[in-house]
Amino acid sequence: xxxxxxxxxxxxxxxxxxxxxxxxxxxxxxxxxxxxxxxxxxxxxxxxxxxxxxxxxxxxxxxxxxxxxxxxxxxxxxxxxxxxxxxxxxxxxxxxxxxxxxxxxxxxxxxxxxxxxxxxxxxxxxxxxxxxxxxxxxxxxxxxxxxxxxxxxxxxxxxxxxxxxxxxxxxxxxxxxxxxxxxxxxxxxxxxxxxxxxxxxxxxxxxxxxxxxxxxxxxxxxxxxxxxxxxxxxxxxxxxxxxxxxxxxxxxxxxxxxxxxxxxxxxxxxxxxxxxxxxxxxxxxxxxxxxxxxx
Length: 295
Fold this sequence. Notes:
Number of strands: 18
Number of helices: 10
Largest sheet: 10 strands, mixed
Structural class: alpha+beta
Order of helices and strands: EEHHHHHEEEEHHEEEEHHEEEEEEHEE
Number of domains: 1
């Protein structure tokens, strides 16, 4: 399997991802015996719940400082000091210190820290990580009628690695409805897995929230679970207006993804995002930075 590379928007450099648990991922998705284990128990929710409980144990605080050193995270970004976390999971879904992610003067901002892919039309996506893999919008949304409305709209896929800040935010102001849960297994959403089978994105457990806005129509906001994601937590109140950049929720331990779909003609995605995505390369950008200009 080839290494995972992405373009860092801040540095302008092409970087190679340090994959947390890379050996296990390559074994599970690239080795015949690993694939047996994957389909027997790794993809199943009980495995992720078990691993999540392990990460809640106080003794896992010993993992925090080595993790910071290995992945070069800046503790000044955190609301709490490293020694104040009560478990690795507590550290994993940490809050940021005020001002750590300035809000861009843009109608839409990235909902999470992560590696992002953006496409002008959801229905025309045919190359994600590898050519020939087409998005199933109806399968993703779990609703044919909803898919008809959004199939020609812009789509943003944001992938969060275990090293990332794991709270996700609203991309624009509006009024969110109730969150709908679509149950499913928990495959990895790492490119190491998605290169083989993109449909993990619409097979996995996922959530759908419709955000009604004044200027951008109704935006579909989704969270996609993955292997070792203990749970998806929503922290907003349905029916109560939210501001752009306001926290929507957080993932417990594990890699995961968020996904946004916009109505056709409402936004124009940023040029650097579209260019890198056309090359099947993700763009690394932080939450609250600019996604698009108004159409």
